[in-house]
Amino acid sequence: MKNTNKKLSYEIKENAKIMLAEGRSYNIISKTLNISKGSINKISKEIDNLEQLRTNKKEEIIKTLWEKVRVALSHIDIKKLKNSSAYQLMTIAAIGVDKAQLLGGEATGILEIKTEKELDRELKELQVAERELQEAWARAEKKRVEVEKVSSEKDEKLS
To answer: What DSSP assignment string belongs to 97-141?
Structure first.
């Protein structure tokens, strides 16, 4: 049942203003604060510059997210990287970065977290590929020298 008091408390009005600034819908505000949509509409008209208020609130949220990302990252060390808690901290940091970038209108990317074992496997694969490439390069160089030698011999015979 909606609050039917004609005068809303200062606290309810301020909470409604905050929720409006956050871009919450009238339905959500109405249900959360137990006030009518008409009251919400009146409160929204009391706000001088709702868009500026929303922008300020958005910037405040972005700042808070970046602070949380920095705190999460500051708790990660080599020892924790080997434990699941580091994985959780990295996940928190990645989510925080993603949300802050989205709110800031920046492009976001997928952050992939790999275990030390996965990284070791990938390193070994890259080392094998590098060795194979070096061997192929050596064979190609040997073939080039042979071709140059044959070509040089043909040139000498023709001369």
So the answer is: HHHHHHHTT----------HHHHHHHHHHHHHHHHHHHHHHHHHH
Residue 72: which of 108, 106, 97 has the closest Cα? 97
pLDDT at 102 over 70: yes
In the predicted model, what is the mean pLDDT of the chain? 82
Distance, CA of 96 to chain centre? 7
Residues 6+ apart with CB under 8 A from 57: 18, 21, 22
Asked whether residue 1 carries a pLDDT value surpassing 60, the answer given is: no
Report field, pTM of the whole predicted structure over 0.70: no
Give the count of beta carbons closer than 10 Å to the beta carbon of residue 107. 6
Rounded to the nearest angstrom, the gap between the alpha carbon of residue 35 and the centroid of all alpha carbons in its chain is 37
Q: How far apart are CA 136 and CA 139, in angstroms?
A: 5
Cα torsion 28, 33, 34, 40: sign: negative
Amino acid present at 78: I
CA angle 106, 108, 110 (to 5 degrees): 170
Rounded CA Rg of the chain = 32
